[in-house]
Amino acid sequence: MPWPDILVALGTAGLLVFALAMLHDKATHVSRLSSAAFTAFIACIAVGLYANNMIFGAAVNAADAAVWVAIFAVRGVRKDD
Description:
- It is built from 3 helices and 2 strands, in the order H-E-H-H-E.
- It has helices at residues 3-24, 32-51, 55-74; strands at 30-31, 76-77.
- The protein is elongated.
């Protein structure tokens, strides 16, 4: 596993910790548009990392995208709410 893969995975894992905290906190509400866009962009990054054989970084990014799907479903609010 090359060091850039480890570096990307560690950086994304840091984001994943905060995303999990948002998912856990019942007072947090995120715009559905923001969470949907963030999910799509993180998924694109995961695909790009996978295409460049950065498997560990891609897996952590895919996990981050999955958490953002959960944030969209559980903590998402419409703009007018």
